[in-house]
Sequence to fold (314 residues):
Amino acid sequence: MYKSLLYFIEKTPSIYFIRFDLNGKLLYANRLFKKRFAHSYTNFIGENLSNCLHKDSLQTFQKITQQCLEYTSDIVKADLRNKKHDDIDSHTKWNFLAIINEESKAVEIGGVGYSTTAYAIEKKGHILTQQKLLAMLNSTTESIYFIDKNKKLISYNNGAAYKSKLYYNLDLHEGFDVRKLLVPGTEERFERCFNEAFNGIENNFEDSLSLPTSEKEIWYKMTSKPVYDDEGKIIGVMLSFLNISEIKSIEEKLKRIAWEQSHRVRKPLSNILGLVSLLKDEKHSDKVQELLNMLDESAKELDEIVKYIVHKTL
Fold:
């Protein structure tokens, strides 16, 4: 049994086993520990465990040692940062325990640990991704609200905070009930869209409304999307509110141009085309002059209409 345990301690590919005295000097280190920290030690035995620790973890290590001596039956857990090697910032998760003699006095400290470097790198990557995502969300003109099943805010972007203050004179915070932002008459549509999204159906619509702090009516586009966790379970709804008043204004101008072209422009243009056709067939000079006058009149009429359209759409 003892030999089997010793074999496991020496051969394990993932766990560090160490013992050190009350001054922090190593009394034992298994093969994996020696392999991993060979750059920090010459002989290991008799050298300080702190040799492999980053300066940021030295004070924590001292507190751990003291805690093991004071509470000899407790397992003391710690995440210690190691010295950089090959420019890699590594971490180790440790469980430390006092080793006592027959008189129940602590004479050594044992440690069992494993590398959390990969986890730390992954966590750093997640934080960086979050920062990039947040920067992207905060740079958009949309107001984005992430809400839970009770319509309470989980998160939101800068656009949402700004517009909520501008339009409703309300300050957002986690746990804020988004129904306080609803304009009277929009509650039923909001509930329907929210419920659809929470059941996995994305939806969007465009509408106009008058805001409490503005006399001017605005056009907006609202999109509701389900938000999933890593297991594919819906945990909330993302609401996106976008002011599209300017887009609607441009659309109205384009519609006006189309109407002007199909109604007002068509008449003088048809006259011009008809007169040109008559001129081609007319041989009497007095009749030609009359047609030319009519053509000039229709051309001027068309020119005035074009100027009007340009003035109205710029």
Observations:
- The longest strand covers residues 217-228.
- The first helix runs from residue 2 to 11.
